[in-house]
Amino acid sequence: MKATDGLTHEERAERDAAALKPFDLTEYEAQIWDRIAPQLAQQGRLKPYYVDTVAEYCRALIRMRALRSTLQEEGETYTVSGRNGKQYKSRPEVAQLNETWRQWRNLTAALGLSPTDERGLAEGQGDLFPDADNPFAGMGA
């Protein structure tokens, strides 16, 4: 269905996502932006003040992929030998991946990119006692 501007909802979302796309994204970050931003725009969750959050989501995802690639190539542990004998140590990339995953997960939640997070952003959520059923409504006024 086309609106008065002649664009479908999907075409308008693509246009809005392209207009808000940061200029400083790398090629791979831009690919993620082009995949996720139009979907957010369709749901009304790509606003100018969310651009930095979406851009950081793209950056975190690229970092996670790079760290995972390194760990697949080199393994998650290495050994050292010393006066205490042979010891196994975690690579620093393991901690970096864990921290990047936590950052990515927070951004995912903020943008409503998982089913649980999306439900939390749905209108009407958050009020356990609607005014009509709330015996305490109006007591604080």
Question: What are its keywords?
Answer:
mainly alpha, two-stranded antiparallel sheet, 141 residues, Phage terminase, small subunit, putative, P27 family, 2 strands, 5 helices, 9% strand, Phage_term_ssu_P27
Description of the molecule:
It holds the Pfam family Terminase_4. Residues 73-92, 116-141 are annotated as: Disordered. InterPro entries: Phage_term_ssu_P27. This is Phage terminase, small subunit, putative, P27 family. With 141 residues, the protein is mostly helical. The protein has one domain. Helices cover 56% and strands 9% of the residues. It has five helices and two strands, in the order H-H-H-E-E-H-H. It has a two-stranded antiparallel sheet. The longest helix is centred in the middle third of the chain and has 24 residues, at 51-74. It starts with 8 loop residues before the first helix and ends in a 20-residue tail after the last helix.
Total strands: the figure is: 2
Number of helices: 5
Poorly predicted ranges: none
Query: Span between N and C termini?
Result: 46 Å
Report Rg: 22 Å
The class by helix and strand makeup works out as mainly alpha
Helix amount? 55-70%
Element order: H for helix, E for strand: HHHEEHH
- The tally of domains stands at 1
- Biggest sheet details: 2 strands, antiparallel
Overall outline:
elongated
- Average pLDDT confidence is 88
Placed side by side, the strands forming the largest sheet appear as: 1-2
How much of the sequence lies in strands comes to 5-15%
Region (Disordered): 73-92, 116-141
Organism: Cohaesibacter marisflavi
InterPro entries: Phage_term_ssu_P27 (IPR006448)
Protein name: Phage terminase, small subunit, putative, P27 family
